[in-house]
Amino acid sequence: MQELTHFINGEHVKGTSGRFADVMNPATGEVQAKVPLANKAEMDIAVAAAQAAQPAWAAVNPQRRARVLMKFVDLLNRDMDKLAEALSREHGKTFPDAKGDIQRGLEVAEYCIAAPQMLKGEYTDAAGPGIDIYSMRQALGVTAGITPFNFPAMIPMWMFAPAIACGNAFILKPSERDPSVPLMLAELLEEAGLPKGIIQVVNGDKEAVDAILFDPIIQSVGFVGSTPIAEYIYGTGCAQGKRVQCFGGAKNHMIIMPDADLDQAADALVGAGYGAAGERCMAISVAVPVGEETADKLRDKLIPRIEKLKIAPYTAGDDVDYGPVVTKAAQENILRLVQTGVDQGADLVVDGRDFSLQGYEDGFFVGPHLFDNVTKDMDIYKTEIFGPVLSMVRAQSYEEALGLAMDHEYGNGTAIYTRDGDTARDFASRINVGMVGVNVPIPVPLAYHTFGGWKKSAFGDLNQHGPDSFKFYTRTKTVTSRWPSGIKEGGEFHFKQMD
């Protein structure tokens, strides 16, 4: 049985807490490794190493820091297949999905190569007699990130790439369900030339999370996961005086207007609803066709597409549509919610409850499900299922459809399918959701824009990646400077105009 490690001060370090978690193979249901769960003492060692290394790293000029990321990107491309295989083996994603996970993280690292440009301050010459004013963006110090199982490569890179580009040290607490890829990423960063101690990977559970939240040396915390935990981390971290950004759950709606290309919309719904087994915070889980005719036609197009989905382990080839969910508990929760939908009166028109894969009966596979005539009082509408379950909620008008998305407590992503520019423009303007797609089902922005939801999907003032990431991982210092040149010196007892 493989025993994984922490990565502290440039070394693989065995856990000393005596506590371990099982790392499963979701396709077979077998334990494939043990991962150590850190205690506070182990976290303290990582923090001390980060604190010792960070000042020298912050003193390296931004261009040289960017060169480390340039090399890191080269190494990611070199090891793409190796990383993707490890990711698929622990998470269950198909191989193309795993490579996409890595690619979207790589793109943020590429963006952060622009650190010299992003870290420039402002300057005002001669703001007053002999007075200049200028600003600097300076590193926070030691920063940390707590990342989820569903994107074990992408989300860590969304956090640590801008953090280290800004001159910070970074402590990563990845999901204990699929920890191998974060450890491999840390190795690649040091191979790229990152000094020891600037990236630390400390595996753990709530004890490690609380050690991060209550450590006075750690200046900022990023989190992606469920909303209840996001609320806990945000509230606790802010109470400790930390800068915190947390991203929580989602219930993403796609509105399908009567004028939409229904084949295009159906294809988009199948990919966005069932890809990665629905384990994506940007998955479309609610389809809202406008008008009964639209709903009936859409349903007729969805059913055969869903019934043809190929569900198998990643080893079955690149034509697999999705694999297992991450744990037995996740599988059981999804099926429980499906049964709740049936009990509460929704029409289960595609029933995947009896799905079983020969040779993988102990794997955590869930067949695809499609509900119709779902209402907003049902649990399957209110709850983030995080599985291959799509609900159709019929709306009689555009305003009713818009209201469904606006009234839901989550506001991560949404989409509209239409040929009408006025409708699309109105939707994008009025919807109270952070990321909007127009004929795009999963509107995840590219690395040079920012990613973030609204309402109970996000907590904090700044989003992930893009320009916001450089703001989050730095503090602004403003300097007012005067160099006397024939100016009479004297005490200043009140504010004066500088003109």
TrEMBL record:
UniProt EC number: 1.2.1.27
Presence of keyword Oxidoreductase: yes
SUPFAM superfamilies, alphabetized: ALDH-like
Keyword Oxidoreductase appears in the UniProt entry: yes
Aldehyde dehydrogenase domain: residues covered: 13-479
Pfam families named among the record's database cross-references: Aldedh
PROSITE patterns given in the database record: ALDEHYDE_DEHYDR_CYS
Record keywords, A-Z: NAD, Oxidoreductase
InterPro entries: Ald_DH/histidinol_DH (IPR016161), Ald_DH_C (IPR016163), Ald_DH_CS_CYS (IPR016160), Ald_DH_N (IPR016162), Aldehyde_DH_dom (IPR015590), MeMal-semiAld_DH (IPR010061)
NCBIfam families, per database record: MMSDH
Protein name: methylmalonate-semialdehyde dehydrogenase (CoA acylating)
